[in-house]
Amino acid sequence: MTxxxxxxxxxxxxSAELRARRLAAARRRATALLAAVTxxxxxxxxxxxxxxALGYIQAxxxxxxxxxxxxxxxxxxxxxxxxxxxxxxxxxxxERKDQFAGTLGQFVQENFLNADVLAERMRSARLVPRLxxxxxxxxxxxxxxGHAADLVVTLAEALRxxxxxxxxTAELTRAAEAVEVAPLAGRALRVVIAGGHHAGxxxxxxxxADRYLADHYAELRDLFEAESPRWVPDAVYRRVFDRLFDxxxxxxxxxxADPGDAARREFDEWIASLPDRxxxxxxxxxxxxxxxxxxLASAELRDWSSSLWSQxxxxxxxxxxxxxxxxxxxxxxxxxxxGKRLGSDPRLEESLMRIVESGTRALADRxxxxxxxxxxxxxxxxxxxxxxxxxxxxxxxxxxxxxxxGTVVGAGVGLALHALALGLA
Length: 425
What we know:
The protein is mainly α.
């Protein structure tokens, strides 16, 4: 609906005014030549065509007139009706515009949008080697990386935050639902145990407990006193508490420091058996799945996915705007490396070329009717009279030489025929 109703003049070429002036000048030349031979014919005929030379002149001028008028009629009939007369098969461009549009669309479809033609053109153009050479240049790769990063940002901005958050949450949920928590934890724990890192876990637990006792001495003492019988004196409470408190802290310190401590060995035995229980115990599996379901259904996960998407977009904007960012430098390096690899590996080049050809054939087979219809429909929407006028401005200057050539050729044919007639007389 937005297509122009008439063909658009090519920008940067001759203006319509210049073409009109050139067409008018060419018409004057052709008409002047026709008028000149007409004057010659009339003059010779009036004076009497006596003598061999005058006979040749009269015959040549007569034939030149016929040729000039015939070609004037032919050229004019392309664009309008000669002298305004309703002569059949004239004003061809106006009358047959829609047929011309269909023919041109079919011609383009058969000769330009043909899958074999396009594939051969792609191969002869050496598209893949040229692309490889272009990408291998670091400057080109950096420029392409910048455009690619901007495109990623544009696509990210085009997504609604709600849709992106919903998609991200759905993908996280789908990935989590496919994994059983307890067996996964068991496998992870095996790796921890194999690396000997579980010893540090025990030490950290014991050290943390000792630190907690040290930091909450007064609170624990008051709690202990509140639970003690009222008839026991406060001094006794505190003495007993201090003794127990010191013994407990001393025990924790020794547990953390002694690799052979009994409690440590019990912890090692317990944690060594835990992976098997996590992988085989139905109860632990069920508890792990309940925990996973609670996490997936929590509002915190939705909030986290929303904040994650916002952070991703902010990071993309920052990275895309900075030519020295890791994103753009990494992408440029990858593109340059791909270009060099593609240029040095004939098999990879041929494989990519086959992919390009296959894609070209698929697009041609899928859209050649639509593209041909675009050509046909565009021309059909043009105004017939204005189309004829525009084409006359484009082609008329050269077509006027047909009139001139017709006049000249007609004169030559007339002279030849006159000579032949005299020879046969």
